[in-house]
Amino acid sequence: MPYIEFKNIVKQFGDNTVLDHINLQIEKGSLVTLLGPSGCGKSTLLRCLSGLEKTTEGQILLDGSDITDVPASERNIGMVFQQYSLFPNMNVEQNIAFGLKMKKVPNEQIAVKVKQAVELVELQGKEKAYPASLSGGQQQRVALARSIVTEPKVLLLDEPLSAIDAKLRKTLQIKIREIHQQLGLTTIFVTHDQDEAMVMSDVIELFHNGRIEQSGSPVSVYTSPASSFAAGFIGSYNQIPGNVFEAMTGLNAGDHHFIAIRPETISMTRQKPADPDCCVLQGTVLGNTPRGNVLRYKIQVQDTIFRVDALFRSFHMFDEGETIWLSIPKKDCLSIACDDHD
Fold first, then answer.
1. CB of 143 within 8 A of CB of 84?
2. What's the predicted TM-score (pTM) here?
């Protein structure tokens, strides 16, 4: 039996349907990421689970119990928001201990639990510091410690790293993942960042227009997109109308399909390759954009623009206007039915 189950969840704000008959099961101890663009419904579903929003229709089960109408204060669910929401007049220890005091846990137990939580988020030496003296990353660690110290049934993380700089964000992604694995705490993480979802998740639930577009492991969602939206949002796929690709290559793309190709699967050479397992196309370099250790090229082939990713090697670069050859493995040309609800 699933640990968390959403049954036919609908949430409307006036005439606006934010969640459109969501059915989702989450296993105990897993880290599930709700991924999607702003306004797709992922944070609303999280708030319905926490009790901060009431569903319009449907049922929510937690550990076999119906919590659909249970007050938020009685659900035993921890939540961390993008805003740290720390008490400015309380130091780190006092902020972390707040939930335990509300539950009237004995002081000696509070001291032990707070010490353990401080060590877990690696804030030793900051116990007496006040929020104003802490960095954004440190404040978010306090908020995380405050949520887990009460030993909730579920931990909800609503874009908690959005306001943190890129380098620290990557560090905290790993730390949250480590804490999750150490505690075995059922965790639901909300983000609009596909790279973050890939790093953090056991399972990704990709949201689109109030519905779940695709579910699966990070690798399966990335390598086998179920729709045009999934291909564009998760993997930055090149998406080429089937009839156009068929005219270029002679391969049958299927009626009402498009061909999706990941930028990193395409190779570029100055000499025409001879590989029967690849589609070989001639193109012109329009330019490139550095993306960390990857250079993303724009290549024009007839009337179509391909995005091609190559490792950033100064001794092996292609110039704007240069004629080159693209090799696309046939196995990486995914035929996907055109979306019918965009």
1. yes
2. 0.90
Summarize pLDDT for 169-222 with one digit per residue, the tens.
888 898 899 999 999 999 999 999 999 999 999 999 999 999 999 999 999 999
Order of strands across the sheet that contains 211-216: 77-80, 154-158, 186-191, 31-35, 203-208, 211-216
> How sure is the predictor about 339, in pLDDT bands with cuts at 50, 70 and 90?
low
Q: Which two tokens stand for residue 137?
A: 């990353």
What residue has token string 């090697």? Answer: 313
Show the beta-strand stretches assigned E in 70-124.
77-80
Q: Residue 188: count other Cβ atoms within 10 Å of its Cβ.
A: 26
199's enclosing H/E stretch is helix 194-200
d(Cα 253, Cα 247) in Å, to the nearest integer? 10
Q: For residue 82, give the nearest of 136, 124, 130 by alpha carbon.
A: 136
Task: Return the structure tokens found at 29.
Answer: 């101890």
